[in-house]
From TrEMBL:
Binds 1 zinc ion per subunit. This is Neutral ceramidase. The active site is at residue 279. Residues 1-20 form the signal peptide. The keyword Transferase does not apply. GO terms for cellular component: extracellular region; membrane. Keywords: Hydrolase, Lipid metabolism, Metal-binding, Signal, Sphingolipid metabolism, Zinc. It catalyses: an N-acylsphing-4-enine + H2O = sphing-4-enine + a fatty acid. GO terms for molecular function: metal ion binding; N-acylsphingosine amidohydrolase activity. Its EC number is 3.5.1.23. GO terms for biological process: ceramide catabolic process; long-chain fatty acid biosynthetic process; sphingosine biosynthetic process.
Length: 717
């Protein structure tokens, strides 16, 4: 070998090493993940989602969690949070930012923090501030609001404290058997040539952002998927994160063996997307009494029978488990499969927008003609009151109603009737509530919403302030994909129910049928048209590096809020008993598949929400030590509370444990933890413990497999 050849080999080797190091440096981000408890008051507060005043919490099945993810490319920082709550409110986000400002002094701000709700319908309400959203909870509920704000903030703090060098990857897969379109007749209003571009009338693609540290150790994942978390129906009275929340718990249990929910290092967020017309109740709608199919357009049944869709299970708990398992199975396969590394800069832009004051050009697909369209003041249509096949409404309202009723108009006009301009603007929607013209005692629905875009390498995350339907989401993705020149529509990720909640967004064609989603599209028939114009303008502004002002400020409502939820006045134990005493003991011997129930003398659960703690423990004796087997955040347990006397202030707590098939035989006990409030105001902790019972090994056929039903994600034909 000549000296020249030797030097050349050294030079080329050094060059390759330099290139590899350069590529590593380019793809290296600073990343952090964090999780925190956000469970709201589990009893005596109505849930947010089905808008039923009688659906008030009686206990807890699955705790709510906030999962935070921080990305930093050395120039700009981005925070994404997915929270197990109905949706995100402007007031919640403002309060979170205020708390972060006190610790980080501008590092986390209005520009770079994106908060998204999973949209569970089984969590306490009263946190959105706008009157229409807090009506069923009898106003603002400070306990719910504070639980969300404190927990979301803590999850971001924990992610910040775990910042480390790492890499990002994106992957995707199809979820089958977990979703149907609940308004297929509305979807069919969209142009045939547009529908022909897609195989299904719902988006079945799950998109996953994966986080690893610089050594390749998994840190977390965000999986976006479009489905309503309404497997738990409107008869449920136990706080639950529903199908998306349980999918997250399954993923975290897989990655954090031996850890309890919310306690592991690996954080798995399952986040909402364009779920507006997507239901997990895959057996579809039927008339509840006759079992016959409902009317396809109005979702109504003869003789006032309710039109209700059912999930795949025998009851809502089994349906939740099945749907969660199907979503998790795809997420797990995606995690293990092929993936695309995320490379490039991070850029986050934010702007408030008032859609009622926007206008843009619209090309009518039916005739190709171009015309100016504008937004309307918010209003809700008649079909809003009809509810959906996931949760029917009250009275005699039907979906697809496009005419008014004199009786309901009189009721509406007694509050505030719509102006002639509003009626024309919202047409063909018959207005039931002219919310944009109703400001007593304060704003009923938001006129100003938060809009935000996060460019992460070759992907963009679009924060949308509501529930976009399947085709509405597709149009927005397609518009931004073409504007940014991205490889596929899946490179545009829609983060639903994000920063602000402003109900639904349909296509103009879907709006024309006026089913529930169209009736709840509050800024008029061209709400989507205006959003597409607005987000495109934001992208162009970012590309041109031009200044983007902050936009009009949302209304400040915190000082105007009304709360009619009574506080806990006092607790008292019955005569000759103390808090924590056991009223009903467990059987002496049980087997896997059995259900154990223990009842305790209880204080009010709202005295302490037990964030990061538990109302119950299932323990097994190992040697001389009692070892925790399950908490109130585990699927197998339920915590149920009942007020036995309002006047005397007495109550009982029932703890339920379904023994899993893999439970080890031995001695067990169940414990309850709570706080009681004395009449003079001081709150004291208490606890109680059941007698010891034996779990036997000679199991009869198990009713409850570990980690939920062993269900596969079978591809549909």
């Amino acid at each position: 070998m000549t000296r020249f050849t030797f030097l050349f080999l050294i030079f080329t080797t050094l060059l390759q090493v330099t290139k590899i190091s350069s590529r590593a440096a380019e793809s290296l981000y600073t990343i952090g993940v964090g999780i925190a408890d956000i469970t709201g008051p589990p009893v005596e507060v109505a849930f947010m989602g089905y808008a039923r005043m009688d659906q008030r919490g009686d206990g807890l099945h699955l705790r709510q969690f906030s999962r935070a993810f921080i990305l930093d490319d050395g120039h700009e920082r981005f925070v994404f949070v997915t929270a197990d709550c109905g949706m995100m409110g402007t007031g919640v986000r403002e309060a979170v930012l205020k708390k972060l400002e006190s610790s980080y002094h501008g590092l986390y701000n209005e520009q770079n923090v994106m908060l998204s709700g999973t949209h569970t319908h089984s969590a306490p309400g009263g946190f959105l501030m706008h009157l229409i959203f807090d009506l069923n909870t009898m106003g603002f509920v400070p306990e719910t609001f504070t639980a969300l704000v404190d927990g979301i903030t803590l999850s971001i703090i924990r992610a910040h404290d775990r910042l480390t060098g790492g890499r990002l990857f994106m992957a995707k897969g199809e979820v089958f058997g977990a979703s149907i379109n609940r308004s297929p007749q509305s979807y069919l209003q969209n142009p045939p040539q547009e529908r022909a571009k897609y195989k299904d009338d719902v988006d079945k693609t799950l998109v996953q952002l994966q986080f690893e540290d610089s050594s390749g150790k998994p840190l977390g994942a965000i999986s976006w998927f479009a489905v309503h978390p309404v497997s738990m129906n409107n008869t449920n009275r136990l706080v639950s994160s529903d199908n998306m929340g349980f999918a997250a718990l399954l993923f975290e249990k897989k990655m954090n063996p031996g850890s309890f929910p919310g306690k592991g290092e690996f954080v798995a967020g399952f986040a909402s997307s364009n779920l507006g017309d997507v239901s997990p109740n895959v057996r579809g709608p039927r008339c509840s009494v006759s079992g016959e199919p409902c009317d396809g357009v109005s979702s109504s049944c003869p003789n006032g029978d309710a039109c209700v869709a059912a999930g795949p299970g025998q009851d809502m708990f089994e349906s939740t488990k099945l749907i969660a398992k199907r979503i998790f199975n795809t997420a797990w396969e995606v995690w293990k499969g092929e993936r695309e590394e995320v490379r490039g800069r991070i850029k986050v832009i934010h702007q408030f927008a008032d859609l009622s004051k926007m206008s843009t050009t619209y090309v009518d697909p039916s005739n190709g003609l171009e015309r100016m369209v504008e937004g309307c003041l918010p209003a809700m249509g008649y079909s809003f009151a009809a509810g959906t096949i996931d949760g029917p409404g009250s009275f005699s309202f039907k979906q697809a109603t496009r005419t008014t009723n004199a009786l309901w108009n009189a009721f509406r006009n007694f509050i505030t009737g719509p102006s002639s301009k509003q009626v024309e603007c919202q047409s063909p929607k018959p207005i039931l509530l002219a919310t944009g013209e109703m400001n007593f005692p304060f704003e009923w629905q938001p006129s100003v919403v938060s809009t935000q875009l996060a460019f992460v390498g070759q992907f963009v995350i679009v924060c949308v302030p509501g529930e976009f339907t399947t085709m509405a989401g597709r149009r927005l993705r397609r518009t931004l994909q073409q504007t940014i020149n991205l490889p596929t529509e899946q490179h545009v990720i829609i983060a639903g129910l994000c920063n602000t909640y402003s109900d639904y967004v349909t296509t103009p064609e879907e709006y024309s049928l006026q089913r529930y989603e169209g009736a709840s599209t509050i800024y008029g028939p061209h709400t989507l048209t205006l959003y597409m114009h607005h987000y495109k303008r934001m992208v162009v502004s970012s590309q041109q590096k031009s200044h983007l002002d902050s936009g009009p400020r949302p209304a400040q409502l915190l000082n105007d809020l009304i709360s009619l939820i009574p506080p806990v006045l006092y607790d008292r134990s019955p005569w000759f008993s103390s808090f924590g005493d056991v009223l009903v003991q467990p059987p002496s011997e049980v087997r896997p598949g059995d259900t154990v129930q223990v009842t305790f003398v209880s204080g009010h659960p709202r005295n302490n929400l037990k964030h990061g703690e538990t109302y119950l423990l299932v323990e097994r004796l190992v040697g001389d030590d009692w070892v925790t087997i399950a908490t109130d955040a585990d699927w197998e347990t339920k915590f149920m509370w009942e007020r036995t006397s309002t006047l005397l202030g007495t109550s009982e707590a029932k703890v339920e444990w379904i023994i899993p098939s893999d439970a080890e035989p031995g001695d067990y006990r169940i414990r309850h933890f709570g706080h009681s409030k004395y009449i003079f105001g001081n709150i004291e902790p208490y606890n109680g413990t059941s007698k010891i019972f034996k779990v036997l090994s000679d199991a009869i056929e198990s009713k409850e497999p570990p980690n939920g039903i062993s269900d596969t994600n079978t591809k549909e034909e």
